[in-house]
Design goal:
Distance between the termini: 46 Å
CATH topology of the largest domain: Fructose-1,6-Bisphosphatase, Chain A, domain 1
GO molecular function, one term: inositol monophosphate 1-phosphatase activity
Protein name: Inositol-1-monophosphatase
Keywords: Hydrolase, Magnesium, Metal-binding, Transcription, Transcription antitermination, Transcription regulation
Order of helices and strands: HEEHEEEHEEEEEEHEHEHEEH
CATH architecture of the largest domain: 2-Layer Sandwich
CATH class of the largest domain: Alpha Beta
EC number: 3.1.3.25
Catalytic activity: a myo-inositol phosphate + H2O = myo-inositol + phosphate
């Protein structure tokens, strides 16, 4: 998994240096950009993973589902998380590779090529950044915490709910951040740089490695409602654990308040 993520990252770095020549297309909406770099990176990852474990199933953002004889084991891959950042020359983007076994993510790699940060986690073996053990933060109150979030852009749902979340949380925290890449935000929660992260419109490949990174770093991963996490459920909330209940309660309050207005 590490080899595959780093190989894809090397190819993306070369493409990143050729941004003016890169062919860009629109995907599902005007603000959802995709380039040939995504597809090249996914081909690289898929080829190396298939060579190592040819029987495993595969789910990739670009290529979708590919069958394998062993359906209990599945690779989940986002070859370029933070495509818009990548295309606009921002360094905050990465490669996500996760292994799901019988419905549970058991290993994950997030590689941020420009920053040269390699995040790795395996169930029961901790979370690591460039070979150094990482832990979630120890802050225990929202007022002292820095949160990260996903901001819905054009074509995404829940804009009014997000505005309500900001109204409630911006006045009661030390700060709210958005990097533009779920891979970055979740890895940084695992490393203690952020205290929590949530987003209401995501895919499995966005969050899969980050889930085990956060859990193996001592944190918590649930749905935004605080329920058991389904990585195919389209939303996630991860934190250091200590502020989780308070954050989930505030997110629920935002949802209820917006619903009452609507």
């Amino acid at each position: 998994m590490i080899e595959a993520a780093q190989a894809a990252g090397s190819g993306l770095l070369r493409r990143h240096a050729q941004l003016s020549e890169l062919m860009v297309q629109t995907k599902s909406g005007p603000a959802d950009l995709v380039s040939i770099a995504d597809r090249e990176a996914e081909d690289t990852v898929r080829g190396l993973l298939a060579k190592a474990r040819p029987s495993y199933a595969f789910l990739g953002e670009e290529g979708g589902v590919a069958g394998g004889s062993d359906q209990a084991q599945r690779w989940i891959v986002d070859p370029l998380d933070g495509t818009t950042n990548f295309l606009f020359g921002c360094p905050l983007w990465g490669v996500n590779v996760a292994l799901e076994r019988e419905g549970e993510v058991v290993a994950g790699v997030t590689y941020l090529p420009v920053l040269d940060e390699l995040f790795v986690a395996e169930r029961g073996k901790g979370a690591w950044l460039n070979g150094r053990r990482i832990r979630v933060s120890a802050r225990g109150e929202l007022i002292a915490s820095v949160l990260a979030c996903g901001i819905p852009f054009a074509g995404k749902p829940d804009h009014p709910v997000f505005a309500r979340e900001m109204a409630l949380l911006s006045a009661g925290t030390a700060g709210i951040r958005r990097t533009g890449a779920c891979a970055v935000d979740m890895a940084w929660v695992a490393a203690g740089r952020w205290d929590a992260y949530w987003e209401r419109a995501l895919s499995a490949w966005d969050m899969a490695p980050g889930v085990i990174l956060v859990r193996e770093a001592g944190g918590v991963a649930t749905s935004v409602a605080g329920d058991a996490l389904d990585i195919g459920g389209g939303n996630v909330c991860v934190s250091n654990g200590a502020i989780h209940a308070a954050l989930v309660a505030t997110l629920d309050q935002a949802l209820r308040e917006e619903a009452s207005i609507a």
